[in-house]
Specification:
Keywords: ATP-binding, Nucleotide-binding, Transport. Pfam families: ABC_tran. It comes from Crassaminicella thermophila. With about 300 residues, this protein is α/β, with parallel strands linked by helices. Helices cover about 35% and strands about 30% of the residues. The chain starts with a strand and ends in a 10-residue tail after the last helix. The structure holds adenosine-5'-triphosphate (ATP). Adenosine-5'-triphosphate binds next to strand 2 and helix 1.
Length: about 300
Amino acid sequence: MIKVKSLDKYFSDFKALDNVNLNVQKGSIYGLVGPNGSGKTTLIKHLTGIYKQDSGSVEILGKTVYENIDIKSKIGYIPDDLYFFPQYTIKGMASYYKSIYPKWNEDRYKRIKEVFKIDENRKINKLSKGMQKQVSFWLTLSSMPEIMILDEPIDGLDPLMRRKVWNLVIEDVAERETTVLISSHNLKELENICDHVGIMHKGKMLIERNLDDLKSDVHKIQIAYKNDFPVNISKEIEILHKEKRGSVYLLIVKGEREKIISNFNKYNPVILDVLPLSLEEIFIYELGGAGYEINNVIF
Ligand SMILES: Nc1ncnc2c1ncn2[C@@H]1O[C@H](COP(=O)(O)OP(=O)(O)OP(=O)(O)O)[C@@H](O)[C@H]1O
């Protein structure tokens, strides 16, 4: 559905995107994550046809996005910095959307109005930041996009609104197999709704994987031995992080769960717990492996 190959983008002589590949399947909810300045918004601006790449390709539904009005009309884009015409009311903006999105759905517009409960005669620029985000979801979902690209979509929304918005997105994916790409720093919420994640770092795509596979590949282990920690074990398994808390070691280990357990068991531990890692923890440790400064990050 969305396919980016070997994408490079320069701003003067600064390389903002470096050989980026991205693949999003139809009906998938894809979380694009990465530290500040890693290139997420720049990549998104290529997916929405705002930027033209210096090299590589950016395709949606098998077609180049840049200067392709037909493809752009299938994309619902909520940018980080929202823009509405000055002086427009919600109703006026809805009429404009209706004129440019051929699949505009009036019933849906009325139904979502009941979710957000904002007077459609109000001027959008006079609404609060969070309310403007709600309006943006309202209009985007009513235009029945095949692809939704959301850059920091829940920024500024209160916790209840965030739930409502996620429910609307999940419902849309379930009903219409919409393809969704979301960039967000809220990894806890992304973890609940995404099936795939791409982690960016310094303009590169560090990892792109199914979230369940990613989670089954990194583990948090609490372990204690009667005697010293068996140092040789690091030759057998990949330890990303190790720290001592009292007599117990906390380790972050990469690899197959069963293989890791059997390796640790060879040295007869008195405690061995294998715990799941959150997306936030995976993010931090994977970036740590890529040279990102993760010292002083305590869990
Ligand atoms: N128009 C531009 N001109 C020059 N440099 C730019 C421009 N847009 C982005 N950059 C640079 O490209 C890099 C990536 O920026 P981008 O906004 O894509 O990051 P991001 O991952 O979205 O960050 P954040 O999480 O902080 O929003 C940054 O170093 C930024 O300064």
